[in-house]
Request: fold
Amino acid sequence: MKILGLSGNIKRPSRTAALVTAIVDAVGVRGQARGAVSRVIELVDAAPVLFRALRADQLDDEGQAIIDAVEAADVLVVGSPVYRASYTGALKHLFDLVDYRALAGKPVILAATGGTPLHGLMTEHQLRPLFGFFNALTLPTAIYATEADFTDHTITNPALRTRIGRAVSELERVLPPDATHAHADTVHTDAGRTSRPLLSAASA
Reply:
């Protein structure tokens, strides 16, 4: 089972990347019996590669590898800082390059970070319709976090951890029972760099 986290942050350190990574970690722990392989791509690294192309047929090998990873994932965790009441343009450009048929039926956990609770519905008004276009299966529980949920870009609010656990439980209920492989592995990749373990503290 391939789990891919996409964080729309365009700077580092990033609370959004920390949130996406925490969700991917939680999915990976629950998915060990399914041979979970986890990866996180941050747009701070991927965007300069993807913006070399304005259309999918202009992607170079490095950019195509990023899009291939998105299209090949079994589970997506997608998060973004709230910019201008929506997700970042860098994240939008990535999905402009994804084949419109590639995500049909795939489960997606939605996440976002913002300065105040006032932006908390961005996941419902912006991210969820995006994946509706792709006919993806967005899980009911979206995860929104504010600066108060972090200390030094590390999640410290137990209620946020509880919400992450709820979303992961929903994911378990929609995954096919036979998605098992021989082994489990976890990596964290920033568009070309790989490190272990997956967890990386990264501010929106």
Summary: The helical segments are 15-30, 43-50, 61-72, 89-96, 122-133, 158-174. The CA atoms of residues 104 and 135 lie 5 Å apart. The longest helix spans residues 158-174.
